[in-house]
Design a protein that fits this description.
The protein is α+β, with helices and mostly antiparallel strands. It is about 20% helix and about 30% strand. The strands form two sheets. It has a five-stranded antiparallel sheet with strand order 1-2-3-4-5, covered by helices on one side. The chain has a three-stranded antiparallel sheet with strand order 6-7-8. The radius of gyration is 17 Å and the shape is globular.
């Protein structure tokens, strides 16, 4: 997948699921998708009225959880608002723009993600660089690294 394809605008949750499916095929990982469709089913619509399915503007919100098999353990929750939460080996990256999800996953599967450690303040971070100047960095919870994360230290 070239970098231009990684930056394609993904206007819907379904478009993002299809882009993730292409990455799963490219890197030979299994994929399972759970769809939540309707205002009564999506996680951010806590104030939805009884039996309400549509948003007030008449749209039908679509949220999806995509679980990718193999190493690393990755899942992607796509929200109807155009963002995603990507979890890599238990490390959660919140508010990733939907259009950046393919580039993020490609970076992880190409081995570009790395673990950066510091003594002061103490901690370890998972760093995922994307094409251009975009980089995502999140604190790794806990003390023990998974085997995949341990292989990424100093990578």
């Amino acid at each position: 997948m070239d970098q231009g394809a990684e930056r394609t605008h993904l206007p819907t949750t379904e478009a993002a699921v299809q882009a993730i499916r292409a990455i799963a095929e490219e890197f030979g990982v299994s994929m399972a998708v759970t769809d939540d469709i309707g205002v009564d089913r999506t996680s951010r619509r806590t104030s939805a009225g009884l039996f309400a399915v549509l948003d007030p503007d008449g749209s039908l919100p679509h949220e999806a959880l995509v679980e990718l098999g193999g190493a690393p353990d990755v899942d992607v929750r796509l929200f109807p608002e155009g963002d995603a939460r990507i979890t890599v080996e238990g490390v959660e990256f919140h508010d990733v723009p939907r259009d950046s999800v393919p580039a993020f996953l490609t970076s992880v599967y190409r081995g570009l993600a790395r673990v950066k450690a510091r003594l002061f303040p103490p901690g370890q971070w998972l760093v995922v660089p994307l094409p251009g100047d975009e980089t995502y960095k999140e604190l790794i919870p806990g003390v023990q690294l998974t085997p995949w994360l341990a292989r990424r230290v100093g990578a």
